[in-house]
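Batch job 17 of 40 flagged for manual review because the log was empty.
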Amino acid sequence: MRTKTAILILFLLCSHTLLAQNTAIGERAPRLRSFRPKIEMGKFLYVGFVYSQSHPCETSVQRALNLVEQTEELTAVLFTREQKGKCKPWLANIAQSHNIVEMEANEIFKKYGVEYAPFGVILDHKRRVLWQGNPNMLDKKKIENIIQQWTLQR
């Protein structure tokens, strides 16, 4: 009986997690029209969903932005549901630097179906999802593999 209960609980948790986003690898992601700043999109775009009150988000954003800086083909944009005056200073500082941070991005969160932060998506120039997941799982080698696979598929 315990085994059946444990399996049922695990199934319910996994099925809820599967509904955490509306994007799928290889499919087109929703448009990002709501954000105001124009960016020169290289071949790839890292889209990060963050919440400044979360320490894991702070860590993952710093890590993701460092990886983006190391990769010439990758540009980053971050979205948060928070209002400008309510986000923590670390996120406000990122927004003031050369990075693009869109505050009050409820529409984008809904379009992508993101319920949990940190969450990241790497898109190609046609908005196809090449990778998605927790940004803490990214490293330079994984990004290079994503870019290489995309280049081979063209």
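Reviewer: the log was empty due to a logging misconfiguration, but the result itself is present. DSSP finds five helices and five strands in the chain. Unflagging and moving on to job 18.
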